[in-house]
């Protein structure tokens, strides 16, 4: 179930006679996308420990970002780089309850190019029009970060570029053929994860 209201899948699961898979509810976490992201990270990097992960774009409303940060907090020597406009910074409660609570090193910046050489993973996100009450604010912030080949010149050769999709224009299509672009692999991994969940619920071994 994907629902615009927070808590809807939980309410439905208490009434339904069949299992409910939460595919994202409002601004809450996005568990199936997080499983997809974890599978992609492990397939591309071969590990969950000892990684520096940059989250770029809408960190305030991006539920896939919130979910993945919480999931990665279980692993060792994780460093988090938060790249966003000031208005779209990661919520304070996630910094306090997840990052600080798990002693995870993190920095906040508005400059993607400055931190690019340090990243093992770059998780891009779109600025979500539906999360804004003010259209002017959306227009002003929507193109804050656009990843181009020029901005990857200082990136690691084995950088893993991820995006939960759909994208608007925050990743140039010129990057699609770059060996570091992993977002289409993410889509395929998402299919496998959701197939596995459905089979699990059906009791198929």
Distance between the termini: 23 Å
Element pattern in H and E: HHEHEHEHEHEH
Alpha-beta classification: alpha/beta
How much strand? Answer: 5-15%
Number of domains: 1
Q: How many strand units?
A: 5
Apparent shape: globular
The top level CATH class name:
Alpha Beta
For the sheet with most strands, the description reads: 5 strands, parallel
CATH superfamily: Aspartate/ornithine carbamoyltransferase
Any idea of the CATH topology? Answer: Rossmann fold
Computed Rg:
17 Å
Report strand order across the widest sheet: 3-2-1-4-5
CATH architecture: 3-Layer(aba) Sandwich
Name the helicity range. Answer: 25-40%
Low-confidence segments, given as residue ranges, are: none
The count of helical stretches stands at 7
Gist of the model:
With 205 residues, the protein is an alpha/beta fold. The chain has helices spanning 8-15, 31-45, 63-72, 92-100, 112-115, 135-141, 183-202; strands at 51-56, 78-83, 105-109, 121-124, 160-162. It has seven helices and five strands, in the order ααβαβαβαβαβα.
Set out the fold topology.
Elements: H1 8-15, H2 31-45, E1 51-56, H3 63-72, E2 78-83, H4 92-100, E3 105-109, H5 112-115, E4 121-124, H6 135-141, E5 160-162, H7 183-202
Helix pairs in contact: 2-3, 2-7
Characterise this structure.
The protein is α/β, with parallel strands linked by helices and 205 residues long. It has one domain: Rossmann fold. It is built from 7 helices and 5 strands. It has helices at 8-15, 31-45, 63-72, 92-100, 112-115, 135-141, 183-202; strands at residues 51-56, 78-83, 105-109, 121-124, 160-162. Strands 3-2-1-4-5 form a 5-stranded parallel beta sheet, with helices on one face. Helix 4 links the parallel strand 2 (78-83) and strand 3 (105-109). The chain is globular. The mean pLDDT is 90.
